[in-house]
Amino acid sequence: MTDLLAAAAGAALVFAATNVDDIVVLTVLFVAARATGRPRPWRIVAGQYLGIGALVATALVVAAGLLVVPDPWTGLLGLLPIGLGIRALLARTDDEAPPAVVGGALGVAGVTIANGADNIAVYVPVFRSLEPAVGLVWLVVFAVLVALWCAVAALLGGHPRVVRLVGRVGHWLVPAIFVGVGLVILVTSGVLTRLADLAS
């Protein structure tokens, strides 16, 4: 029993450390959902599960030695949230509602995957070292924590101060957050350095 609790605690720690930035993105999506109706809350939750599920599945496949992830080329996924943010900025209207940067579950999943592509580098060595039973505990903990992340973001997205802030500056803040997330992915992944080396 102690081993299972230790496994659950380890899984929770790794999940929290690698997905803390998702809270910001999810909160912005829930605020947009309240203001514009897009994306629907269930699509945000479904997209988050799809995205985290894809990241974990990829890490499991890589850990099993069946696939090699080209590092740091996964950093190019940062172009997805940048593109979504720029599209939302260009499509802004005169109303004060934050723009619907992402419309459906697949869009949310895409942003989650782009934002968490670097998580694979953490998950692979961990999953490689886990016994199957312990790995199952990790998967259950991850599934529970995705729900918790969505619940926290939904609460933050309904908080009056957050809603007021996004209502005042959401027309540029929401897209700016997505562009910022994409830039962080590009810069921290090392893909820009790799591209510069190829160009020289």
UniProtKB/TrEMBL annotation:
Pfam families to which the protein is assigned, alphabetical: Cad (PF03596)
Q: Which InterPro entries does its entry note?
A: Cd-R_transporter
- As recorded in UniProt, coiled-coil segments are none
Keywords (alphabetical) are:
Membrane, Transmembrane, Transmembrane helix
Entry keyword Transmembrane helix: yes
Q: Keyword DNA-binding on this protein?
A: no
Q: Which domain of life is it from?
A: Bacteria
Q: Which residue windows are transmembrane per the record?
A: 6-32, 44-67, 73-90, 102-124, 136-157, 169-192
Q: What is this protein called?
A: Cadmium resistance protein CadD (Predicted permease)
